[in-house]
Design goal:
Elements lengths: L1 H17 L2 E4 L3 E7 L2 E6 L2 E4 L5 E7 L3 E11 L5 E12 L2 H6 L4 H18 L3 H6 L1 H16 L4 E12 L2 H43 L2 H16 L11 H18 L1
Antiparallel strand pairs: 1-4, 2-3, 2-5, 6-7, 7-8
Helix pairs in contact: 3-5
Length: about 260
């Protein structure tokens, strides 16, 4: 009878000791407490805790992605916008994530909501739309500063969508159209200026060599003929006109 009691007790002790073995995956860490006090951070792999005296809380240290629900806020230039974002973060200190904050994901979400409103309120609409990278960097720094004591590292923050009122959308479309028209007029004016410079240079070359003018006239006659027009105007070279005038005067002198 005594041996049976010892055998049962030994089996119970062995089972109790075996029940203290735990396994943590490569991406997990176990925060172990002994009688309510922090004892150690275990893992990854196999480890042992004292049954009935120590207990653990397993933390995932992989990067976590959380959506920040759309928030209606007002920019620095008093434009109402609706913005949503995504936050990437991970636990770098499992013991702090367990002891310093009750619910990590809920806390991160609330901090991100507050930071989103504050940062958008400090920037104009143009900054929010055109300088997204700068705005998100400021937002990431603001969130990371608050969550750092919790053992959380914010890796990245991105704004997914920025909704603005339809009236503002129409005004921005008109502004964009006006800018495009302005650029088109500037390009056209620059082209006309360049053409004027080239024409001036061509005129200087022709003035230095009058024969070039006659060649240009012959080229124009060829181009006009290629158009197959019903009416063709031929410009006579100035030398021919001068010779014809001289011959006419000579004929008049002989007749007299």
């Amino acid at each position: 009878m005594l041996y049976s009691v010892f055998a049962v007790a030994a089996a119970a002790v062995v089972i109790l000791l075996l029940s203290g073995f735990r396994i943590a995956a490569q991406y997990e860490r176990a925060v172990v407490f002994r009688l309510g006090r922090y004892r150690a951070t275990k893992g990854p792999g196999l480890y042992w805790i004292i049954p009935l005296i120590e207990w653990q809380r397993v933390i995932d240290i992989r990067t976590i992605t959380d959506d920040v629900e759309p928030q209606e806020t007002i920019t620095k230039d008093n434009v109402p916008v609706k913005v949503d974002a995504v936050v990437w973060y991970r636990v770098v200190s499992p013991e702090s994530a367990v002891m310093e904050v009750q619910d990590v994901r809920q806390a991160i979400t609330q901090v991100a909501l507050t930071a989103l409103r504050n940062v958008i309120g400090e920037h104009s609409l143009d900054d929010v739309l055109k300088e997204r990278e700068q705005v998100t960097t400021i937002m990431q720094t603001a969130i990371d500063r608050i969550t750092s004591p919790w053992g959380i590292k914010v890796e990245m923050v991105e704004m997914k969508n920025v909704e603005i009122p339809k009236t503002m959308q129409r005004a921005m479309a008109q502004e964009a159209e006006a800018l495009r028209e302005k650029r088109a007029r500037i390009i056209k004016a620059e082209a006309e200026l360049e053409a004027a410079h080239q024409l001036r240079k061509a005129a200087e070359v022709i003035m230095q060599n009058p024969a070039g003018l006659e060649l240009r006239r012959m080229q124009m006659i060829t181009e006009v003929g290629a158009e197959q027009n019903t009416t063709t105007i031929i410009m006579m070279p100035s030398e021919f006109v001068s010779v014809a005038g001289a011959l006419a005067k000579l004929a008049e002198a002989k007749a007299a």
